[in-house]
Amino acid sequence: KSFPLSSLRAIGNTSTSGKLNVSGDIQGPLSSLNTSIGFSLDNPQLNGIRLREKWVGSFKRLPESNNWGSLKMNSDSASISSNLELNLSKAGNINDLVVKRLGGEITLKSQSELFEWQANEFRLDRIEVSIPPEKSFKRIFGEVTGKGIFSLNPLFVDGKLTFDYPSLLGFKLTQETIKGKYQDSKTYITG
Length: 191
Known about the structure:
- The protein has strands at 3-4, 16-27, 34-46, 49-51, 54-62, 67-75, 82-88, 94-101, 104-111, 114-123, 127-129, 138-152, 155-168, 171-172, 175-183, 186-190.
- The protein is mostly beta strands and 191 residues long.
- It is globular.
């Protein structure tokens, strides 16, 4: 039976939607659980970003092989070639993340207290966004390249993004570069 992700709204004050199906095995003592779980995710949405796609994948954790957790997912759409790979540390923190989509990619790497991210020709096609105060979602198009850093505690973001041929709500641009920073509850954006 599908689990509706909208049930998670009470956690972390985030808006989620989509359906999750999970099956698999968890075995062993609590200190070294072996995990092999397969799942599918239909039309995932997090706050104002939505994908009209089905994703299928697996999560494996095999401590005796020094695999502390790896998540691998692929888009189940023939028209949108996408995949995601996430690796965890022994402490359960993110080591690295790679999302590939239509020939481009976004990478995330843990660097001590910070995360370093980089986007390289990542295609936005078929990603939908909701811009307040509207409740409806609109497709965006284009390609994004950039890099930066962020931390979660305290929340800090610093980076630069270049959008090539972005399109939203009928507005089409050739290229737009945005530099931004969020620190101490203050946002700075130039572009």
